[in-house]
Amino acid sequence: MTLPRTPSFDLTGKTALVTGASSGIGQGCAVALAEAGAHVICVARGAERLEETVQAMQAEGWSAEAQILDMADLDALRPVMEQPFDVVVNSAGLARHSPAIDTTPEDYDTVMGLNLRATYFLSAYAGKAMMAAGKRGSIMHISSQMGHVGGIDRAVYCASKHGLEGMVKAMAIEWGKAGIRINTICPTFIRTPLTQVTFDNPERAAWVMEKIKLDRVGEVSDIMGAVLYLASDASAMVTGTSMLIDGGWTAD
């Protein structure tokens, strides 16, 4: 009898690009891939924190380099994405929360510009380079549970993430025959410096805890295993879908 074997999670020899890699979830994604053996190009707008992250990763013996880039600048993004990466993880994103009736066109354009427009072209550039090189790569986006439900004061953010979910499904259909996989990871509230303002608001914190069935907020480490799975051969049959890491938020 020949028993089946678990596919490898080893990323040795692979090259990955991670946006938003200087802190929070993006930093955790970069670490997860580097720990598994990938060479990781860490991308962010701010140089100081990005360099600190890369230096700390290198001190662990991992292979990493920094690339300063504003992902919303498509003219700057395009040449970076001409390299055919094996793995692309997009963790860059932003939110400007307000009641829908108070949303300004400027806030709408800013959120959509990064969360959807830049994400769309990052995917398109990455997919084109993979196809040209014959790489069966993996692209993933850090989306949100708010790509599947609605939320108070989050109409623009939800619109951007629901749009992202539809975009990924369409691209997965187009690129499947080339062996290119594209998926999203949809976290609940993850404790990072950017989300601390929510946890500091007693009313908002109570709303969050009421919704999360596992009775705790998420940590960056809760995302890292999912990133490694989607980057590796273990997920070779997974594309066009979303991995909800929401503590049961969307189970209602």
The structural class is alpha/beta
**CATH H-tier superfamily:** NAD(P)-binding Rossmann-like Domain
Overall average residue pLDDT: 96
Low-confidence runs: none
Total number of domains:
1
Beta-strand fraction estimate: 5-15%
Quick one: biggest sheet? 7 strands, parallel
- Which architecture per CATH? 3-Layer(aba) Sandwich
Shape: globular
| Estimated radius of gyration | 18 Å
CATH class: Alpha Beta
Q: What is the helix/strand order?
A: EHEHEHEHEHEHHHE
The CATH topology is Rossmann fold
Strand order of the largest sheet: 3-2-1-4-5-6-7
Short recap of the structure:
The chain is α/β, with parallel strands linked by helices and 252 residues long. The protein is built from 8 helices and 7 strands; from the N terminus they run βαβαβαβαβαβαααβ.
Element layout with pairings:
Layout: E1 15-19, H1 24-35, E2 39-44, H2 47-59, E3 64-68, H3 74-80, E4 87-90, H4 105-133, E5 138-142, H5 155-175, E6 181-187, H6 196-199, H7 202-211, H8 221-231, E7 242-245
Parallel strand pairs: 1-2, 1-4, 2-3, 4-5, 5-6, 6-7
Mind explaining what this structure looks like?
This protein has eight helices and seven strands, in the order βαβαβαβαβαβαααβ. The chain is of the alpha/beta class and 252 residues long. Strands 3-2-1-4-5-6-7 form a seven-stranded parallel beta sheet, with helices on both faces. The mean pLDDT is 96.
